[in-house]
Amino acid sequence: MDFDEFREFGHASIEFIINYLSGIRERDVLPSVAPYTVINQLPKEIPEKPEHWREVLKDLEGIILPGLTHWQSPYFNAFYPSSSSAGSIVGELLIAGIGVLGFSWICSPACTELEVVVMDWLAKFLKLPEHFQHASDGPGGGVIQGSASEAVLVAVLAAREQAVISCKETHPELSESEVRGKLIAYSSDQSNSCIEKAGVLAAMPIKLLPADDDLILRGNTLRKAIEDDVAAGLIPVICIATLGTTGTCAYDDIDSLADVCQALNVWLHVDAAYAGGGFALEECTDLRRGLDRVDSLNFNLHKFMLVNFDCSAMWLRDANKVVDSFNVDRIYLKHKHEGQSQIPDFRHWQIPLGRRFRALKVWITFRTLGAEGLRSHVRKHIALAQQFEAFVRNDSRFEMVAPQALGLVCFRPRGDNEHTAQLLQRLMERKKIYMVKAEHAGRQFLRFAVCGMDAKPSDIEFAWTEIETQLTALLAEKSLPARKPSNVSELTQHFQMHLASDSGTHEKSQ
User: Which residues does this entry mark as bearing N6-(pyridoxal phosphate)lysine (predicted)?
Assistant: First the structure.
C-alpha cells in the first residue's frame, strides 16, 4: 500500500467512524449473534494475496459490527462509561502513525516530557495535593498506566517490596521467604475484582473486609482486622480503598482509613477509577477529603475525561518507592542524561518495559475540549443521572437501592429478586438498552450508568420508557397491578432546560 492508497484508506476510515458514531442510536446496543458467528464467516488462514482495503471495510461493516456491543451508544448503561471524543480518536491515530516506544527519555524525549506535563495538568485540574505533581519539590509524580488494574497492581507490588525490605531490617532473624509468607493486604468487599486479582498476581492474600450497611469501608473495621492479624503473626502491607465502588459508586472513608494506615505504617492506595472525575468539581469537594494523606491513587481517564481506552492516571506520593521496587537496568537501556535530571524513566513506574505514547491523545483531548468542556461533561452525566432518578422516584413500582452518585443510579422493581432478574432478562432480549445487575445483602438490583459519547435527556427518556413498559408487560403477565408513572415527557423537558442552563456559567447542582 503506497501513501496515495493509504490516504484514501485513511479518509474512508474516518468517514466510516463518523457514520458509525453519528448513527449509533439506530443500532441495537447488544448484538444478535450466536457463538462462532464471526469465526465461521472468516477464513481459516491469512489471505495469500493482499486484499483491497475496500473489501476490508466491507467486512468490517458486514461481519464485525454486527458482532459488537456498542459501548459508545447512549443506550449502553452497563458497568461504567468508556468514553471517547474526536480529539482522542485522532490522537490514537497519530500515536499509531508516529509509532514510538517511550520506555526511557532517550527513546523519545517528547514522549516522556509530554506525559510529565499532562499529568501535572490533570493533577491541578482535579485539585489533587501538590506533592503529586512532578513540578513539586518532593519525590512524587504521575504516570499513565493502561488500566486501573495495572495501577492497583503496581501499588500492591511496590508496597509488598517496601514491606519486605522494612521487615527484614527490623526482624533479621526471619528469612525472606518467611517474611513473604506473612504478608497480608486489605480492601472492601465492595471493591473491584481487579483488586482481588492483584493479590493473586502478587502472591499476597487480600482480605476483603465487610463494608458498613451504607456500603462504605471505615477505619474502625480496618483497625480491628489489622490488630487481629498482627496478633496472629501476620504483616499488614497495604489497604486499597475505593472512591466509586463498582456496585453502587460508594465512597470509602479515606480520612479514617488514613488515620489507621499512618498509625500502623500501612500503604494506603485509593482506586478512584470512576469517581475521580468528580474531584474537578467544587460541588464534589467532599470526594477529595483525605487524599493529602494517601500514598498513591488512580483514576481512569477513559471513564470521565473523554480519552479513549486504555488510559489510567496514577499518582505516587513517593515515586522512589516504586522505582526502587521495579528497577532492573541493562546496558542497552542506559543513556548519557540518565540520573542528571529529575525527568523520570517511566519504565520503572510500570509492569511492562514498552510504553505507548498515551500522553499525546491526552494532550490533544485536553486542548480541544479545555477544562471547561471536561467539567461540563462530568456535570452533564450527573444531571442525566438525576433525571433518571426522578423517573424512578415518580414510579411507585420501583425503589432506589443507594443514593444517586455521579452518573450512576441503583434501583430495582419492588418485590422479590425474581422481578429484578426477569425484568433484566426481558431488556437483554430486546437489546434496546444494556444494563447489568448487582447484589447486596441478598437483594438484587439494576445499575443504570450514564454512558455514551453524547448522551442527551431524550436518551434517558428512551431508556426509562423501555424499562417501565417492560415492567408493565411483566406485571401484566403475572396479573399484578401496574400503575403508570408520572408524565415522563414533562420530566425530560425539565432536565433539557437544566442542561441548557449549564452550558454557561455553572451554579452549584441541586
Answer: 303
Q: List, in order of start, the domains of the chain with CATH numbers.
A: 3-73 (1.20.1340.10), 100-356 (3.40.640.10), 377-479 (3.90.1150.10)
pLDDT tens figures, 421-475:
999 999 999 999 999 999 988 899 999 999 998 999 999 999 999 999 999 999 9
Q: What is the DSSP letter of 64?
A: I
Strand-pairing partners, residue 445, are: 438
On whether the CB atoms of residues 349 and 154 are closer than 8 A, the answer is yes
Q: What is the DSSP letter of 68?
A: -
DSSP E strand boundaries for 353-465: 398-400, 408-413, 436-440, 443-449
CA distance 44 to 28: 29
Choosing from 77, 192, 298, 300, the catalytic residue is 192
The one-character DSSP state at 243 is B
298 part of the active site: no
Looking up cell 512524587 gives 140
Convert the pLDDT of each residue in 216-248 to its tens digit: 999 999 999 999 999 999 999 999 999 999 899
